[in-house]
Amino acid sequence: MKFEGAPQFNPEEKSQERLQAQAEVFADKGVKNFSEDQAQVLKYSAELSQIKDLNNLPPDLPEELVALIQKHKDAYINFLRQERKLETSFIEENIKTYKEKFQPVVAELKAKMAQGNFKELPEYLGSGSNGSAFRVEVDGKTYAAKFSRNITQANFEIKPLIRAKDIPHTSQLVSYSFEDGVVVMELLSGTDVTNFTPEEAPEYFDEHIIQLIDTVRELDAKGLVIDPKPSNFMYDPEQGFSVLDYHLKHVGGRYGLPQEIIDLKNGLTARKFEPLDYKAPDYEEKAKEQSIERNKIFLPMMVRFLGILKEKYPDILAEWQRQRDEDKKNPNMGVSDLIDRRYIPQHPDLEPHLKKLEEMGF
Fold first, then answer.
1. DSSP reduced 3-state for 263
2. Residue 317 pLDDT more than 70?
3. In sequence order, what DSSP letters do the residues of 102-126 get, joined into one string?
4. Dihedral, CA atoms, 150, 155, 156, 161, nearest 10 degrees?
5. What is the C-alpha separation between 58 and 50, in angstroms, rounded?
């Protein structure tokens, strides 16, 4: 690529994958995170890699790409002066892998998605606030392909996936494409814990609860933090729990490992109950009945869960208690009890568990 004022290096000596990888790195380091410009640099990274001279653009480029180049050309040229310092081998390998292995099946899936309601496709796995996931099969193996609502969100999600490489029971990155707006991951086994009804829910084994705690500790050691929303956990009776969603820790953030571990209670006690009609005349009666049933699940699990923490992870529990005691002293923070008895109905089936929790200090 011939740039004025830049060191002389011949673009023909670089692979297209290397040039595209440099564009992706520039999107991370050279423009503002989560900006429209960042999204466009990522989207057009493949096309940028084919431009031989930024001062002499091909005539058939999209107008928004031309405007993008004109805006960032000088910064991009200065960025490429450091090109020998850029480590792009992972990105280059991903570009090759995606083109050779996943691009054809993703193109076929996107064509199906464009034909109508994609949620009716047999490949559809589910949707969240940031995108939708689909099952794809390549060379006899099944993967999860997630299409994010915007490219910068996909870029944000890839970073923690790279850090979590080889951590068991977590989402594992396989490949991605900003051009297609997709992230391909290993398909984790199990069922979303929010889909278990009280009648169908398995009895979670203690060793699987311990495995879940250890998974969160491994993620924490890599600078990653979980999203404790119950739907971000899957359970398989043989494999145990899997963690679907995690992200980079915020520097100086208050949400750390002790609270993450305590918040695992959300997934451990989640069940799918019948929705109640608050306009129905018997709503209050039904709500009380459901509250009792929920607490028949919640309280025994909390006895087990807190017992495991006391026995195997006393330091984590002590640190959580220390942080909690500090928060209670802050008049600007509202801190409720872990076992908030104000909202637990009186019922003979619940009393033994409440008594046991009180004996445990909760």
1. coil
2. yes
3. IHHHHHHHHHHHTTS-GGGSTTEEE
4. 130
5. 10
